[in-house]
Amino acid sequence: MEYKGLNANSASPILGIPQRTLNRQINEDAKVGMELVSAILNNFGDISPAWLMLGEGDMLLDAGQPMLSKDFSPFYNDLPVSAGFKDAFDPSAERPSGYISVPQWSAQFYFPVSGTSMEPEIHSGDIIGVNRVESLRDIDPDKIYMIVTNESRMIKRCYHDKDNSELMWCVSPNYPSFAIKKSDICAVFHVVNRIERL
């Protein structure tokens, strides 16, 4: 938890373990059961099972070692997505905070949400799973996207400008719509699932 920058409060929703239980195991030296061990391994695929369960080897798997499962997707807790301006996202340059597996949904990346631009569909504190959109031609105005520019990461519905093919409109329920130049877009990701805050 120290390595991941987590405490019982922030780890609880990620691991799916009640905060009270985690507090007892951390502060009261309560026994740690397989439920917690499984939750750690299922959500943080870079943690070595041998280290966690047997105390053998290094805490982290080597970069060359495979993840526990191909179903794990990187989670970037330090890169919240909002309606405002944030640093852009480059998956090759960023180190994930951990890994998330949601078996019924296949997402390439997971991000926390800050801000209220997409409420009531997506709330601040939720976690979104996203998949990269290969072409702007594939944009569907009925779907929600994470748009990455050099200066921002935001979640919006999008549609192409009817009069200017160089522009795309970004729409959210709680803020005025605005147009951005397609040439300013670094990447677009389709929001495929949402982990709701408790």
Task: Write up what this structure looks like.
By secondary structure, the chain is of the alpha+beta class. It folds into 2 domains: 1-68, 434 Repressor (Amino-terminal Domain); 73-195, Umud Fragment, subunit A. The chain has helices at residues 8-15, 19-27, 34-43, 49-54; strands at 73-75, 98-100, 109-112, 127-132, 144-149, 153-160, 167-172, 175-181, 185-195. The longest helix is centred in the first third of the chain and has 10 residues, at 34-43.
Describe the structure concisely.
The chain contains four helices and nine strands. It has 198 residues and is α+β, with helices and mostly antiparallel strands.
Summarize this structure as a short list of keywords or feature phrases:
single chain; 198 residues; alpha+beta; 434 Repressor (Amino-terminal Domain); Umud Fragment, subunit A; 2 domains; two-stranded antiparallel ribbon; 9 strands; elongated
CATH topology of the largest domain: Umud Fragment, subunit A
Order of neighbouring strands in the sheet with most strands:
3-4-9-5-6-7-8
CATH class of the largest domain: Mainly Beta
Largest sheet composition: 7 strands, antiparallel
Order of helices and strands: HHHHEEEEEEEEE
Q: Runs with pLDDT <50, length 5+?
A: 64-69
What is the terminal separation in angstroms? 20 Å
Structural class: alpha+beta
C-alpha Rg (nearest Å): 19 Å
Oligomer: single chain
Number of strands: 9
The mean pLDDT is 81
The DSSP helix count reads 4
Shape: elongated
Helix residue percentage: 10-25%
CATH architecture of the largest domain: Ribbon
CATH homologous superfamily of the largest domain - what is it?
A: Umud Fragment, subunit A
